[in-house]
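pinned: reference chain
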Amino acid sequence: MVGAFVAGAAAALIGVSLGQGLRIFVSRKRTNARLDIIEQCIPQLITRAEVQNAFAEVAQIEAQRMAQEQNRRKPEMQFQPQAVQTSAGMNQRINEQLDQLKERIQAMNDSMAPQP
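pinned: its structure tokens
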């Protein structure tokens, strides 16, 4: 009984999916045929090939614009302060700052110490 139910559900699923695929195929074929008819009836309109060429040109222009923008940004990046430093240089700066803080703290402690 369960096997028959599973087989029926599988058959229904296959039938629905094949029907949808066939419907999509037929509708695409109709759409392409409609476009061909429109292009034949009204030759003054822009053709599909011209549209495809225009899209290709737009893609090339956009790629050139992006390359120019990247080239403009390169000099800006060169003049930025050095963000990358060696770890030895960073450690040295941190140690110098710590020494200065220790001296300040020692000076504050000395000034607050009770005078005999």
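why pinned: Helices lie at 2-41, 48-78, 87-112. Residues 1-44 form one domain.
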